[in-house]
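User: I've been trying to design a sequence by hand for this structure and keep getting stuck. Would you show me what you'd pick, starting by listing the structure so we're on the same page?

Assistant: Good idea, let's start from the same input. This is the structure you sent:
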């Protein structure tokens, strides 16, 4: 995670942090399941996370719509396909984990 995050505690920043922490969890689940059984992301998934973070931070829409409803489609097709796979793979597992920890 880059260390140049703003330190402001506005709602907008909190939303951003929340979104990023969700996407980060999803990418970790995906990478550990698909690529390697390690703590750290592989370079490909790290790259995807960096990209997602940048896109999310630079989003000009406020409030930001769900990506599938977004008129801009800021993700490049290559990354959009990757993130779609991550969501599909990790979505189920994520909710299972969440239920398990209740
Ligand atoms: Zn990976």
């Amino acid at each position: 995670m880059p260390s140049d995050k703003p330190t402001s505690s506005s709602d907008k920043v909190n939303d951003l942090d929340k979104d990023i922490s969700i996407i980060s969890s999803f990418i970790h689940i995906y990478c550990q399941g698909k690529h390697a059984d390690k703590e750290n992301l592989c370079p490909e998934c790290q790259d995807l996370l960096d990209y997602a973070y940048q896109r999310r931070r630079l989003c000009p829409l406020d409030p930001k719509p769900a990506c599938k409803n977004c008129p801009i489609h800021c993700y490049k097709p290559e990354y959009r396909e990757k993130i779609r796979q991550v969501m599909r793979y990790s979505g189920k597992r994520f909710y299972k984990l969440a239920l398990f920890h209740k």
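That's my pick for every position. To get oriented when you compare it with your attempt: The helical segments are 11-34, 43-58, 77-100. The chain has three helices and no strands.
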